[in-house]
Amino acid sequence: MKNSITLIVLIISFQFAKAQDLETIILAADDASLLSQNYLNPAMEGLMYSMNGGWATTAKVHKKFGFDLTIGLNASLVPEEAKSFAFVPGDYTYLSLQNNETELQTIMSEDDAEVMVDVKIPNDNGTYKVVSFTMPGGITEDLPINAVPAPTVQVGFGLPFKTDIKARFVPTQRYDDVEAKLIGFGLQHDLTQYLGVVDKSPLSISVLGAFTNMSVVYDMKDEDATDNVEVVNGEAEFKMNTWTVQALASLDFKLITFYGSAGYNNGKTTAKMKGDYMLTYDVEDNNGNQLGTVNESITDPINLDFESNGMRATLGMRFNLGVFKIFADYTFQNYDTATAGIAFSFR
Questions:
Q1: End-to-end Cα, the chain, rounded Å
Q2: Which of 202, 205, 250, 317 is geometrically suited to a Cys-Cys bond with 191, CB 3.0 to 4.6 A?
Q3: Which residue positions does the secretion signal occupy (predicted)?
Q4: How many CA atoms lie within 13 A of 281 on its CB side?
Q5: How high is the mean pLDDT in each 10-residue block of the chain (347 residues)?
Q6: What is the value of pTM for the model shown?
Q7: Contact at 8 Å (CB) between 313 and 332?
Q8: What is the span of the domain harbouring residue 164?
Q9: What span, in angstroms and rounded, lies between the C-alpha atoms of 85 and 207?
Q10: Are residues 117 and 28 in contact, defined by beta-carbon separation less than 8 angstroms?
C-alpha cells in the first residue's frame, strides 16, 4: 500500500508541475484568472471524473465482516476539443498573441509548444505598462499515460443488513514540492434481498453512494530571475470534492463477474495561487518608446472554481481467482474513463 500511496503523489506532482510556470500568467493582471481557468480546466475536470471511478467491481456485497483491499488506476480520457482553447481577443482586456496565433494549448495537450503573450495595460497619464510572457504548453508527454490519472487504494467492509462501507485514505504525503492528502467514503446496499426469487440467481443488484475529498499544495519557487515575477512564499493550492450515486448490477459466477452501473457524478474544485508576488513592467509611451520600468506588488492573485457533473454508465469484467481478483471497466461520461486493478476479497 505504501508504494501505491507514493504513486498517487508522483502522478499528482506530474499533473501540477506546470503550476510552477503559471506564476508568469499573473502578469496578465485582470485577465490572469480567465487565462488560468481555460488552461487548467481539462486537468481539473478530468481529475474529478477519475476520482469518482473504481468504487465497485460487483453489485454483490460482502457477508457480515467480509472485507476487501482494492488497488486500481482510473484514467479519464481528455476529449480532443479540450486539449486547446481559442484565444478570443474580445474576452481579454489587455492581451494579444504574437505571431498571429489564434489558440493556446491547455495543460492536458500533447503539444508542449510555448506561445508568447503580450500585455499592454494603460496608465492614467497616457503611458502603458507592457510585458511579454510565455504561456506554458501541455504536459501529457510527461505523464505515464495520455489521460488524467487517479490511482486509488480502497478497503471495503461488510456490515449488517447487507451493506458495505468503503474507504479511501491517503495520509499527508510529500514528494519534492508537492503535498497531497485524500479521504473518501462510500456505502453500497444490496437490493437483491428484496426481490424474492432473484436472490437465488447469479444476478445481484445494489445502490452505491460515495464521496471523495482531496487537497494538493504545490510550493512555487522563484527559479527564474528573468521572468518579471518575484515570488515570496508562493504556493498553488487545489481542493477537490467529488461525489457519485450509482445503481449497480452484476452477474457473479465462480470464475468471472460481469458488472455494470448507471448513475450521476458531481465534482467541485477550487484552485488558488497564494502568496506575495512582485511584478515588473516596462513603461512605454503611445509610440512604443520605453520610458522606464515599474514594480507592482500583488497578494493571492488567483482564486478559481471548477465544476463538473453529468450522467455516467459503466461496463466491466472481473476475473475471480479465489481471493485474488483482476478487474477492468470502461465508463461512458463527458470524459470517458478506463479503470483497471486488482483486489483481495474475503467474503
A1: 21
A2: 205
A3: 1-19
A4: 20
A5: 46 53 86 92 90 94 92 91 92 91 88 86 91 86 76 91 92 76 93 79 94 87 77 87 97 95 95 91 90 92 93 97 95 96 90
A6: 0.87
A7: yes
A8: 2-346
A9: 38
A10: yes
